[in-house]
Design goal:
There is one protein chain. The chain is α+β, with helices and mostly antiparallel strands and about 350 residues long. The protein folds into 4 domains: about 55 residues; about 80 residues, Elongation Factor Tu (Ef-tu), domain 3; about 80 residues, GMP Synthetase, Chain A, domain 3; about 80 residues. It contains 8 helices and 16 strands. The strands form 5 sheets. The protein has a 6-stranded antiparallel beta barrel with strand order 1-6-4-3-7-8. Helix 1 packs across helix 2, helix 3 runs parallel beside helix 4 and helix 7 packs across helix 8. It starts with 7 loop residues before the first helix and ends with a strand.
């Protein structure tokens, strides 16, 4: 029989009933009376305890656990919450030859983001290459080539501005509960089999930042496995070379010794959509595009198909939409091998 947590009002009513049963003639409902205060005080304390019991009831099963309790459940199956990753880049500093820039020196971006020098460097030939790492994890600290940074404190013999010349790694946030729970349930429901398709997918998803992965047996012939993945937490979900190297190294430690693994980034394959919408307003257009973005994130996979019926259903889910007609694409869309269907330009007629 399920347990139903009583509301605060129900507990107050119970307390008043108990008081009046044990004190014949007493009126515990009299506002601001001592008995009324006692009934309400006890109800408040009992309600807090009921709330804690309700919380604990959710933590005793892995599919409803959250936070540190979910992490504890996941650890039993050898799954760890993926830590956040700080963005890394290389920048060029200019100044007087022989000047040393110490590790730990900080540089600032115009938005206030802080980056630290990872290794001490010395200026030679007027320049020095600095290895930088963001002070905070997450994609909000990602840099682009040619970005200008400014030293937070002056360094004698070094010009104040630095120029980013290469991107080593993009940032990633700490794994949230939803992603960790999905991996935990997948592990519980699909036991490891020493190198099955699901094993390769699980191994790729263990790498910080990886959100979706696909596995292709016999990708380059017998004995080979193809692994593709994306990183949905970034503006550009297609992985960098550094991301491919991380996943390849991680999978190499776990794969069967006889398997040859090819880790690759899928090639985006934009799907343009021409749509007739009723009613056609900016608000409803925004709702439609939000649904389409979510649809491609859920269902697109390298070499997969985008079915018109599913696309139409997605558009119908947009709040405020009454009717629509899709002019383009005019048939089911199938991507080529290794190509990932992605939402292209949405036009309205």
């Amino acid at each position: 029989m399920p347990f139903n947590r009583p509301t605060l009002s129900e507990i107050v009513a119970r307390n008043r009933s108990d008081i009046e049963t044990r004190l014949p003639g007493a009126d515990s409902a009299l506002r601001h009376s001592v008995l009324d205060v006692i009934a309400r005080m006890h109800a408040g304390a009992a309600s807090s305890m009921y709330g804690y019991l309700d919380f604990l009831a959710r933590q005793i099963m892995p599919d409803t656990a959250e936070g540190e309790h979910l992490s504890r459940w996941a650890s039993i199956w050898g799954i760890r919450r993926k830590a956040g990753v700080a963005a890394r880049a290389t920048a060029t500093a200019t100044g007087v030859d022989g000047t040393t820039i110490l590790a730990g020196t900080e540089a600032l971006r115009v938005n206030g983001a802080v980056y630290r020098v990872r290794e001490t460097a010395t200026i030679a030939g007027g320049t020095a290459s600095l290895a930088l790492e963001a002070a905070e994890t997450g994609p909000q600290s990602d840099l682009t080539v040619a970005t200008t940074l400014t030293l937070s404190s002056a360094v004698l013999g070094v010009n104040a501005t630095l120029t980013v010349t290469a991107i080593e790694a993009a940032g990633a946030i700490e794994e949230d509960d939803a992603s960790l729970l999905a991996r935990l349930l997948d592990r519980i429901r699909t036991a490891p089999q020493g190198g099955s398709l699901s094993d390769y997918r699980a191994w790729a998803l263990q790498v910080p930042g990886v959100t979706r992965a696909w596995v292709y047996p016999d990708w380059m012939g017998a004995g080979t496995v193809g692994v593709a993945f994306v990183m949905d937490g970034r503006a550009n979900i297609i992985p960098l070379q550094s991301d491919l190297d991380l996943v390849a190294d991680h999978v190499a430690e776990l794969r069967p010794v006889t398997a040859e693994v090819f880790v690759f980034a899928p090639t985006p394959d934009p799907v343009d959509i021409v749509l007739r919408l009723v009613p056609d307003t900016p608000t409803i257009r925004a709702a439609v595009e939000a649904e389409l973005t979510d649809f491609f994130a859920r269902e697109a996979e390298p070499g997969g198909a985008i079915f018109l019926s599913r696309l139409s259903e997605t558009i119908s889910l947009a709040e405020g939409e009454f009717a629509h007609r899709i002019d383009l694409p005019d048939e089911d869309y199938t991507a080529g091998a290794g190509r990932l269907p992605a939402l292209g330009t949405v036009s309205y007629v």
